[in-house]
Structures are given as structure tokens and as C-alpha cells.
């Protein structure tokens, strides 16, 4: 995973510095920022705002470094994605604990990242379905209630 101040992968264009709530700075390209409507809007505002230095970090309220690291990686992967041969989204999400997926999904919604939100919802839906299937398989039967033993009475003791 990429860390603060890292922009792995090659892309031309301006590099934006994003400051998280825990004071970590992450770098993202304009192309990476385009994967979220809010991120793209922030980039556009930054480009047109006079007096803002290219080195000034953009504050990202409500985004901590753990989530920003995932957002950064997601955007980089979207940039190099080949949708016809790649299943990286599911693999990416499968590596995350439930708590991180939920936070990642919420931040994706907050930042307007449609591909992230759709993939995370689809992934979570599949996981919920799998959990429901496994719970159905594990439901214990009450002793003496199977059709083979003749139904309802208490289990017979054999000595």
C-alpha cells in the first residue's frame, strides 16, 4: 500500500497535496482526483483559487490517514484498470476487515466516488449472502425432531 506523500504509478499533470484530519499529507494526481466528484471539485477550485500555492495542502475534513491511504490506492488502481480482464476491486475489498470496508464505503459516498461505492456495496451484498447461506447450513436440529426418528419425542437412550 502507498503511504503518505506517495504517488505510485506514472501520470502526468499536477500533483495535489491532501491533508488528513491526523495531519498526514498524501499526494494525488489530477487524474486520480477525477475518480471522485468531490475530489475533482476540490482540484478544480484549487486550480482557480488565486493566492493558493501549488505546495499548500488541501485540508480533507472527516478523512483520516487510514482511509485516505485506501482512497489514494483505489484511485491509482482505477487509473490503470482494465475492466475486461481485471477483478482487482473485489480482491482489494476482500483484503479489508469489515470495519474498514464500512468506513471506506462511507468516505467513498462522501467524496462522490461512484466506482468505489458500487463495488463496495456489491461486495458487501455478496458477503452478507454468503454469511446467510452458511448460517442456514449450520442451524442445528433439535434431537428427536428429524423425520427419520419418527418425529417429536425426546431422544431415546441406548444402554
Automatic annotation (TrEMBL):
| Chain intervals with Gly residues compositional bias | 149-159
Q: Which organism is it from?
A: Caenorhabditis nigoni
Source organism superkingdom: Eukaryota
Q: Which InterPro entries match?
A: SKP1/BTB/POZ_sf
Region Disordered: start-end pairs? 127-159
Query: What gene codes for this chain?
Result: Cnig_chr_II.g5972
Protein name (database record): SKP1 component POZ domain-containing protein
Amino acid at each position: 500500500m502507498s503511504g503518505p506523500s506517495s504517488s505510485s504509478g506514472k501520470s502526468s499533470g499536477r500533483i495535489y497535496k491532501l491533508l488528513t484530519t491526523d495531519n498526514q499529507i498524501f499526494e494525488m494526481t489530477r487524474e486520480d482526483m477525477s475518480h471522485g466528484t468531490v475530489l475533482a471539485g476540490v482540484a478544480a477550485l484549487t486550480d482557480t483559487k488565486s493566492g493558493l500555492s501549488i505546495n499548500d495542502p488541501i485540508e480533507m475534513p472527516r478523512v483520516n490517514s487510514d482511509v485516505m491511504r485506501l482512497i489514494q490506492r483505489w484511485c491509482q488502481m482505477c487509473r490503470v484498470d482494465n475492466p475486461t480482464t481485471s477483478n482487482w476491486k473485489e480482491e482489494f475489498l476482500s483484503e479489508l476487515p469489515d470495519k474498514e470496508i464500512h468506513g471506506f464505503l462511507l468516505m467513498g459516498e462522501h467524496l462522490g466516488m461512484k466506482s468505489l461505492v458500487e463495488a463496495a456495496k456489491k461486495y458487501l451484498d455478496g458477503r452478507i449472502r454468503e454469511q446467510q447461506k452458511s448460517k442456514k447450513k449450520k442451524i442445528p436440529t433439535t434431537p428427536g425432531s428429524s423425520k427419520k426418528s419418527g418425529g417429536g419425542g425426546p431422544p431415546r437412550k441406548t444402554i
